[in-house]
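Schema walkthrough. Field components (list of strings):
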Amino acid sequence: MAQALLNGVFLGSLFTLVALGLTLVYGVMEIPNFAQAGVMVLAAYTTWSVETAGAPFLLAAAAGLAVAGILSVLTEVLAYRWIRDNPAAAPAIALGLLLILQNIALVIWGGEGKALDTPYDTWTLQLGDVTISGVKVVVVLTAAAAVAVLAAVLNRTSLGRSIRAVAQDREAAALLGVSVKRQYVLSFLLAGLLGGLAAIVFAPTFQISPFMADSLLLSAFVVVVVGGLGSVLGAVIGGMALGLVESLGATFISPAYQSAFGFLFLVAVLIFRPTGIRSVNAQRVG
Amino acid sequence: MLTTVLAPRPTSPVRETHRSIAGRYVSIAVVTALTYVAVTQLRGDQGLVAILIAVWAIALTGLNVVQGLGGYPSLAQAAFFGIGAYASSILLASGVPFWLAAVGGVLASVAAGTFVAVVFSRTRGQYFAIGTLFFGAVCTLVFTNESVFTGGPNGMPVGLGMPIPVVLAAIAGSLGVGLVVFDLIGRSRFGRRLRAISADEDLAEHVGVPTARTKAIAVIVSATFGGWAGVLLAQYNGVIAPSQFTFVQGFLMFVAIGIGGYGRLFTPLVGGIVVVGLSQLLKLQPGVSQIALGLVFIVITLLVPGGLIGGAERIARSLFSRKATS
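Field assembly_structure (string):
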């Protein structure tokens, strides 16, 4: 039981990390950014390649993060920017980008899984009779740090205030002199960095493969929907709830259906609240 | 909001001349005949591609109702396709006569469609895309893990319920019937309601369109088509595996509708030919065809909102009017 709960916290942190990037982009541009999974895959592969070439892990991780940030911004500049006034086309563009990014990974690195070596994947932490792997500790700490940093950026800096202003009312923000274009690029940069971070810290528990982030992305979308699209606090609450549901379901019912429990959770929430648990209409990011 | 009201009305289906309707049925008959010739005469790889395109086109005709007419991004079509294939094959394996198994396959798909419809028809666009995508992923999980029934990741053999020539005739015939049904839906009140939702859902709701119910029916219709196409695919192929019905396939079906053009009569064929054809032609390296598809899809979404059919119509119209004026 304790093991299942701790595992839930680990999964929840992972979901939160990915969901934060999705919710930020959704809040600012109303785009369900399915391409995030492709960005994550390429970030993980880049990290693996740089590390295999002999670089230390931290340098490789930095390279992976840089690729994630750049790719995410590129998706905005090359594709999403052109449908800004037509959000109905967003799912189509997002899925097209996902197709391209994942298959680029498939063409470059092939379909075989690659194992990422990290300095922390051999650690274990013993708490009473519960054993926690180092990877899980790192994921939880990274997610906590990311939430803290993102909350601080959004609430305390002028940059964050501009992003929130654009999310609340694009026209009004533009009238008051906020560069809307720059906020879009910034939110995609932040989303890419969050996605890359998630991919690199969780890669050691999975193998790196072109489709490694698919089920994670689906779970993260459940978090975003449950937590209310565009809400940071909602992403944290939703992420933890979903992590616990999936972990308990996997432990006590069937591990093969772990992500299916997430789907049942989504169905249950949508039946009672078609707009999510914490629906925020007036303030879409924050 | 106002622009939607004032925009020139699309040619009202009610006022359509009998001649244009007759023309459409003639073209459906020609397409059906050509499909029959293609699936029976082409051999080897070409024959396989033709059959796959025809079966996809049947499933896509259903998707063209919810996504094409209604503008709702449904990513669950491959799941309905798979449910039809698996349910009919499992029933057939347990000794049920073929026609009963086929009906059972379609009913299973309709039941799944009803579930999706009830849960997600109250949600709006983006949520709907996410929900149906996840539904597809869960179906793949079930196909893969319930190996007692489905044979697991390697799939299961399918008993033949009808001789192959009959299967091929059924494929071509179903496509023809499907296109006629789609045409009837497009001109019915239900079709007009779907178009209204696609144009402006809030406005449609205000003027009295029961939006949730209309969307729900559209999902169930799409599941019916998908299920029947799955039955046909299983019968022709003789073996089915989860990889044929993953959510990536569902998403390729969504892409096919976008490439063909939302809600056009022959979108399923054009989309099927591009998506299936491109994947089979560029088999050289696994990822390349998908990258090409993704690029084509994005370019069409950005630059040609009416899809290939809409784009071709516009080009034809401008050529024609230039000729007329000069």
